[in-house]
Structures are given as C-alpha cells and as structure tokens.
Design brief:
alpha/beta; Quinone Oxidoreductase, Chain A, domain 1; 17 strands; globular
C-alpha cells in the first residue's frame, strides 16, 4: 500500500495543493525525500503560475493525480547539496523548470533532449523513480537531482525571470530549432499571453521582424509600443488577414483554446512553418490542401532540454529579457487561477512564495 504524502519521505514540507477537480488550492502538509548524493535542496523564493497549472488542478487533461501541488517555474537559493554534487553549492541561486527526471540513457537524453525522453518525470503530478508522486513549486522548498537544476544568472531578476523556466524555453526552443531566429526573417506570434509576450521578446532579440496575431484589438498598443512588435493583426478581421497573406516565414502559435488553423496557414509564405506550443483541450482541424500547395509545415515543440534551458537563461540575461509579471501572495492563488482562466493577467502571475507562504 502506498504511503500517504505526509509520511512518504523524512523531510517535512508545506505548500498549497488541489485535492479534487474543483481546482481549489488549500494549505497542504507533505514531505520530501532526504537529500541524496546527487541532489540539490533549495528554498523556494518565487514560482510562476503557468496555464498548465490551471489545466492540471482541474484535471482538464485527464491525467491529474490528487493531491497535486503545482508549479514548474521555480527559483530559489540552495540550502543543501548531496556529497557527489559538482555543479552547485549552498547559497547559489537556482531554477527548476518542467522536468525533474528522465532515463538518462535513451537517444533523446544523449542529445540533451530530456524533454523528449519517453520516461521523463515532470516536476509535479508524476511518479518519481521511488514510486512517490512529484510535488511542484507552490511549496516552501524543493529537492531535485542536480542534472535537472539550472544556474540562475546574477543579472536576471528572480521574480520576473521565473516564468522563463517554462514560458521562456517553450518559445525560445522552437525559434531556434526551426530556424526562425535569423535576422531579417518575419514571424508571427499567435496569442499575446504568458507565452506570446515572451516569444515576441526573444524573437526581437534575435533580430526577427514580429507580427502579433490576436483576437483582441485592444492589445495592439501593448504589442507594438510596449513589447516592440513590428505589426499587429486582428485574426477575425478578414481584410487585415487577407492583406497579410503569404508574408510570414513562420508562426509560433501559443493559444491554448480551440481555434482555426486555416487562416494562419494562409499567412505563411511557401515552405513556412506553424509551430504549436499552446495545448488546446480538444483536437484542432487541419486542412491538408493548403499544406500541400505551399509545402507548409505544422509542427510542435515542448519546452527544451536542460542544456538549452541554461542557454536560454543566459541569453535572456544578456539581452535583458524577462516576463511581464504580477507578483502575488500565496493566499491570492485561487483568485489568480480564476483570473487566469479569464485571461485577466498581463502576462504572468508569480507567487512570492518565500515571503507569503505561511504554514498552518
């Protein structure tokens, strides 16, 4: 019989967890494992709220194991290291993103693509190698194998940098892999939310021309004046969309709601690519004819490996890229989730865990 989360491990921990599909989070006592030879333990300072946290607490993907402690945009300061840890020492600023484990032996792992390992272990809600369920960053401290911990650049803010551990790498990786990072190219970013606004910043840092594509006309000033996009398209305005047909080398689609793909395909040049990084709850319709006629590609991308995540953070620090965030207290988390569901955030909530997480 499986041990309860309160007694499965020897180190007491405290966080906020959802216990059923209502998604309501409440204070939760649990435990974390003792620090192993290759483990890094750190005090959680900040944790971003990702849209996938909302999906998970409500079991909208049908994979949630309750109780679930969300959070995979986690930054903090090291408090203890195992005897064989080589990369970190007590006092270092560190981050943990979406992964805390992988097989380390497969082809993907060998190519620094732990994010595509078939035995990857996600930071929360998945069985760890010892059989217990992982718990995320809405908690007072974390412990992770040093391979899945990244160094935090000194000049990158902890609070507004935290969302880069998911939103940042989720958009940086496809820009790089699909060759949409070349100066002079023209890409589209669909959706100006947590992922989209960071995608704009990375693309501009690469020297790419950016068009934001949104259903919300009122986001135009924000996209162009504040985030530096070159142009803005209202996706349900047929005249605007028609005028922009065949102008984009690629599109990063960050939208997590069901939406039509055909209008986006029409914006691409021949050989253009749409990269899906948002995760709608239901399948999208994919018209094949425009793919064939333009040798166009619809592809996907999921976060990044640990090496690329470190590369992304270092790039962000060099180019002063950080998320636009609203810092909130831990006891505001349920209100934040309600607002996130209504897209009422610009553009990422970040929990001030260390200063507002109080044990009960």
């Amino acid at each position: 019989m499986a041990k309860s989360p309160e007694v499965a491990h020897p180190v007491k921990a405290f966080g906020w967890a959802a216990s059923n599909p209502s998604g309501v989070l409440s204070p939760f006592n649990f435990s974390r494992r003792a620090t192993g030879d290759k483990d890094v333990r750190f005090k959680v300072l900040y944790c971003g709220i990702c849209h996938s946290d909302l999906h998970m607490v409500k079991n909208q993907w049908g994979v949630t194991a309750y109780p679930v402690v969300p959070g995979h945009e986690i930054v903090g300061v090291v408090t203890e290291v195992g005897s064989k840890v080589q990369k970190f020492k007590v006092g270092n600023k560190v981050g943990v993103g979406c992964l805390v484990g992988s097989c380390r032996n497969c082809e993907s792992c060998g190519n620094n693509l732990e994010n595509y390992c078939p035995r990857q272990i996600l930071t929360y809600g998945f069985p760890y190698i010892d059989g217990t369920i992982t718990y995320g960053g809405y908690s007072d401290h974390m412990v992770a194998d040093e391979h899945f911990v990244v160094h935090w650049p000194d000049n990158l803010p902890l609070d507004s940098g935290a969302p880069l551990l998911c939103a940042g790498i989720t958009t940086y990786s496809p820009l790089r892999y699909y060759g949409l990072d070349k100066p002079g190219m023209h890409i589209g970013v669909v959706g100006l939310g947590g992922l989209g606004h960071v995608a704009v910043k990375f693309a501009k840092a690469f020297g790419v021309k950016v068009t934001v594509i949104s259903t919300s006309p009122n986001k135009q000033d924000e996209a162009v004046k504040n985030l530096g996009a070159d142009s803005f398209l209202v996706s349900h305005d047929p005249n605007q969309m028609k005028a922009a047909m065949g102008t984009l080398d690629g599109i990063i689609d960050t939208v997590s709601a069901v939406h039509p793909i055909l209008p986006l395909l029409n914006l691409l040049k021949s050989h253009g690519k749409i990269i899906m990084v948002g995760v709608p709850e239901k399948p999208l319709e994919l018209p094949v004819f425009p793919l064939i006629m333009g040798r166009k590609v619809v592809a996907g991308s999921c976060i990044g490996g640990l090496k690329e995540t470190q590369e992304m953070l270092d790039f962000a620090a060099k180019h002063n890229i950080k998320a636009d965030v609203e810092i909130i207290s831990m006891d505001y988390v349920n209100t934040a989730m309600e607002r996130l569901e209504k897209a009422d955030v610009r553009y990422r909530f970040v929990l001030d865990v260390a200063n507002t997480l109080k044990s009960v």
